C-alpha cells in the first residue's frame, strides 16, 4: 500500500491559471491543456500517475452556473475509485462558491478535492500558478500509512495555505494571497514542508462509506445586502420576487438590521408567506448573534434564522442544496443551522 504510485485527476474548468500570452498580440489566451506538461515540466518529476480532463468550452469563472458544479460532481463520482485525489483548476472569481457547492454535493467524501487557480497565468514568468498547482497535486496525493487521504475534504489551496473550501472567500483582486478563511483555521501551511494541521481537518467517523452525490439544486434564492438608507420598495421587491424561496440578508456587525417597523414587518410577512430568511453578517469575520442587540432580537422575533459564522458563499449554496432536498421550510431551517460539512461553527 505504502509504495503505490498515487494517481491524480487534474481537471481544468477555465480561468487565468490555464492561460499564456500570445507572442504576437500579447493577449491572454487559454493554452491547450493536453500540453500542460510542456508548460509545467515539473509535473513529470512527481512520479505520480496524473491524468487530465479539460472542460470544453473553458469557463471564465464569472460565468459559472450550478451546471458546472453538477458536471464536476459527476466527474468525481465517475472517477472516484480510479484516483486518489482530484485537483480542480478554476478561476478565482467564483472559486469559493464552487468549492462550497461541491462540499455539500459530495457526501461521504474520503478523497481530497483541491480547488486552485492563480492570479497570474501559468504561462507568465512571475506566475503564482505553478506553485499553486504543484502544491495542490502534492496535497491531493498525500496519504497516511494506511493509504487514507490526509485531507479528505473539498478544499482551496492558494499561496501557501490550504483552506476548507466552504470557509473561503475571495477577498483580494490583486494580491497573490487572494483568499481568506476568516472563521476557520487553515488545514495546511506550505513552506519548506507541507505542515498538515490535522486537528483542523475533518475525517470520516467511519471509513469506507459509499460516495453519494447530490445534484438537485434549487436556485430560488436572493441575497439582500443591507445599507443605511435602504428603501422599503427595494426590500419588498426582492422579497416579493416570483418563485423566491429563500433570502439571505447580509446584516451589520453581529447580525443587526434596522428596527424600523416597515423593515421588521417585511421580514415577518416574508416568513409567514413561507420564505426562509437567513441572517449572515457583512463583516469578513465573526458571527451572527441575534440575541446581542435589540436590532438583532427584532429579526429573531420576526422568524429570521441566524447563519452564525457561515460565509455568504457557503450560505448561498447550502440553501441551493437544502431547497433541492426538502420542500418544507421547517426542514430547511432546521438543517441550515446544523453543521453539515464543517461550514458553520456549532454554538
Ligand atoms: N476572471 C478569472 C476567473 O475567475 C479570474 C481568475 O481566474 O482568477 O475565471
From TrEMBL:
Matches recorded under Gene3D superfamilies: 3.40.50.40, L-asparaginase, N-terminal domain
Ranges of residues in domain Asparaginase/glutaminase C-terminal: 220-334
GO molecular function annotations of the record: asparaginase activity
Segments forming domain L-asparaginase N-terminal: 8-200
Active site: 16 (o-isoaspartyl threonine intermediate), 16, 92
Keyword Hydrolase recorded: yes
Origin superkingdom: Bacteria
Binding-site positions, substrate: 61, 92-93
A Pfam cross-reference name: Asparaginase_C
EC number(s) from the headed UniProt entry: 3.5.1.1
Sorted UniProt keywords: Hydrolase
GO biological process assignments: aspartate family amino acid metabolic process
Enzyme class, spelled out: hydrolase
Annotated family: Belongs to the asparaginase 1 family.
Matches recorded under PANTHER family: 60 KDA LYSOPHOSPHOLIPASE (PTHR11707:SF28), L-ASPARAGINASE (PTHR11707)
The protein's name: asparaginase
Taxonomic lineage of the native organism: Bacteria, Pseudomonadati, Bacteroidota, Bacteroidia, Bacteroidales
Amino acid at each position: 500500500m505504502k509504495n503505490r504510485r498515487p494517481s491524480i485527476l487534474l481537471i481544468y474548468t477555465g480561468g487565468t491559471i490555464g492561460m499564456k500570452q500570445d507572442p504576437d498580440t500579447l493577449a491572454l489566451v487559454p493554452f491547450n491543456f493536453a500540453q500542460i506538461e510542456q508548460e509545467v515540466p515539473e509535473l513529470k518529476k512527481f512520479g505520480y500517475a496524473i491524468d487530465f480532463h479539460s472542460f470544453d468550452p473553458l469557463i471564465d469563472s464569472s460565468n459559472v452556473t450550478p451546471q458546472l458544479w453538477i458536471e464536476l460532481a459527476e466527474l468525481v463520482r465517475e472517477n472516484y475509485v480510479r484516483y486518489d485525489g482530484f485537483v480542480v483548476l478554476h478561476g478565482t472569481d467564483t472559486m469559493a462558491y464552487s468549492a462550497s457547492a461541491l462540499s455539500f454535493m459530495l457526501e461521504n467524501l474520503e478523497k481530497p478535492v483541491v480547488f486552485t487557480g492563480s492570479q497570474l497565468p501559468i504561462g507568465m514568468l512571475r506566475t503564482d500558478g505553478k506553485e499553486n498547482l504543484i502544491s495542490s497535486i502534492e496535497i491531493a496525493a498525500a496519504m497516511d500509512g494506511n493509504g487514507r487521504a490526509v485531507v479528505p475534504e473539498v478544499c482551496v489551496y492558494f499561496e501557501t495555505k490550504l483552506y476548507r473550501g466552504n470557509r473561503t472567500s475571495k477577498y483580494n483582486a490583486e494580491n497573490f494571497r487572494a483568499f481568506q478563511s476568516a472563521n476557520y483555521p487553515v488545514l495546511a501551511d506550505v513552506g519548506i514542508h507541507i505542515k498538515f494541521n490535522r486537528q483542523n481537518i475533518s475525517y470520516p467517523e467511519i471509513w469506507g462509506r459509499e460516495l453519494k452525490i447530490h445534484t438537485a439544486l434549487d436556485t430560488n434564492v436572493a441575497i439582500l445586502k443591507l445599507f443605511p438608507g435602504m428603501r422599503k420598495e427595494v426590500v419588498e421587491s426582492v422579497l416579493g420576487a416570483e418563485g423566491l424561496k429563500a433570502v439571505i440578508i447580509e446584516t451589520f456587525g453581529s447580525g443587526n438590521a434596522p428596527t424600523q417597523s416597515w423593515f421588521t414587518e417585511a421580514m415577518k410577512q416574508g416568513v409567514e408567506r413561507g420564505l426562509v430568511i437567513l441572517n449572515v453578517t457583512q463583516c469578513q469575520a465573526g458571527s451572527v448573534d441575534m440575541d446581542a442587540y435589540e436590532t438583532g432580537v427584532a429579526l429573531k422575533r420576526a422568524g429570521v434564522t441566524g447563519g452564525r459564522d457561515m460565509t455568504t458563499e457557503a450560505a448561498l449554496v447550502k440553501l441551493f442544496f437544502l431547497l433541492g432536498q426538502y420542500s418544507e421550510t421547517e426542514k430547511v431551517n432546521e438543517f441550515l443551522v446544523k453543521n453539515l460539512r464543517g461550514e458553520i461553527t456549532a454554538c
